Amino acid sequence: MFEDLQPAPADKILALIGLYRADPRPGKVDLGVGVYKDRDGKTPVMRAVREAEKRLLQSRDTMTYLGLAGDTGFNTAMSGLVFGPAAEFSRIRAAQAPGGSGALRLVAELLKRTRSDATIWLSDPTWPNHMPVMRAAGLEIREYSYFDAASGAVRFADMMSALATAKSGDVVLLHGCCHNPTGANLDTAQWAEIADLVIERGLLPFVDIAYQGFGEGLDADATGLRLLAEKVPEMVVASSCSKNFAVYRDRVGAAMILAKDSAQADVAMSQMLSAARAMYSMPPDHGAAAVRIVLEDATLRADWEAELEEMRLRMLRLRVQFAEALRRQSNSDRFDFVASHRGMFSRLGLSEAQVERLRAEHGVYMVGDSRINVAGLPEDGMDAPAKAIVSVLD
Ligand code: LMR
């Protein structure tokens, strides 16, 4: 049965976890997988989430099925968190999903059901798992230019020209904030231009928001998404709690639909839940229940927001310090964009060979496209990785 199978290629991001763990060098630096780390290199359980878990264990008297949409309180709370208090909730439906990837796939399955010949436009570059998820759902893929590696900025004019060729009914996947892998983000005026374009061309915006609270702040990071939601008749969203609630392994996300009206929202939701039933039936409960407890309790929520803000500010500080260290080591402003990028990632613009040399010769781990996770930078020793990076430049 399996004799004709070839081994699947390892996932380029997840493979780094094992490589890094197996590296015995004491000074190794992990800038690979997108996981938040504190000053000690740990990824702690957030205070409010820990408390919510305690309450959950004490109060839970059954583990019977919840239903295809998972925890409905979680879904309501997440819709509010993402769309904001002014949203038209009668047009919004949300389904708890197994992580951000599960939410992406669920939305992709809905798109396939509603438009069997749908083409989805992905940013070039984008998170490496976007393509396999969309392909697995049977969607056609095209790409729009997004990033200028030399300046570290968004190629907005090129992005708009590419999207101007999309045909009515095509879907545009946009990173809600903290673009992965580049760290270069759209500003509010650019989001407004995109909203006009998608309306004019009859495109469907699909926002992936996996890092809300890691860029400019919890509400600020949803500005573009909310601006779209105010203007467009329909849109879809995949959100993740992996990073901003640090519940990575519990797989917590939500797939959301904004429809033209409540009746259409109900129909779309029923199709999405039927797709869920065919893939995994129901999402896992624990992490989403803990997130719901945090979001529904004013004290826990305030503490979660405060801790999230500490994490965001730490990443900003690390960005500035690393850009300074790279300036010192390279005697140039080549990497200054690291300080102005937002979120967890920046893409440095190194070749795969240079990235490989960094790993082999210096124990500095980053994704092959030279994406770094700034949260992994050593706060007290920025010059060592900066020096290593400069040493592999041509
Ligand atoms: C990342 O981009 O590193 C994270 O989202 C982890 C993953 O699943 O790829």
UniProtKB/TrEMBL annotation:
Q: Which Pfam families match?
A: Aminotran_1_2
Record domain Aminotransferase class I/classII large: where: 27-389
**What Enzyme Commission number does this protein have?**
2.6.1.-
User: Which cofactors does this gene product need?
Assistant: pyridoxal 5'-phosphate
- The domain of life for this entry's organism is Bacteria
Biological processes per GO annotation: L-phenylalanine biosynthetic process from chorismate via phenylpyruvate
- Return the PROSITE patterns for the record: AA_TRANSFER_CLASS_1 (PS00105)
Cellular component per GO?
cytosol
Any one Gene Ontology MF annotation carried by this entry is:
identical protein binding
Which InterPro entries does this chain map to? Aminotransferase_I/II_large, Asp_trans, NHTrfase_class1_PyrdxlP-BS, PyrdxlP-dep_Trfase, PyrdxlP-dep_Trfase_major, PyrdxlP-dep_Trfase_small
- Keywords, A to Z? Aminotransferase, Coiled coil, Pyridoxal phosphate, Transferase
- Coiled-coil stretches are 301-328
Instruction: Supply the PANTHER family for this chain.
Output: ASPARTATE AMINOTRANSFERASE, ASPARTATE AMINOTRANSFERASE, MITOCHONDRIAL
User: Tell me, how does this one assemble?
Assistant: Homodimer.
What's the family?
A: Belongs to the class-I pyridoxal-phosphate-dependent aminotransferase family.
What is the name of this protein?
A: Aminotransferase
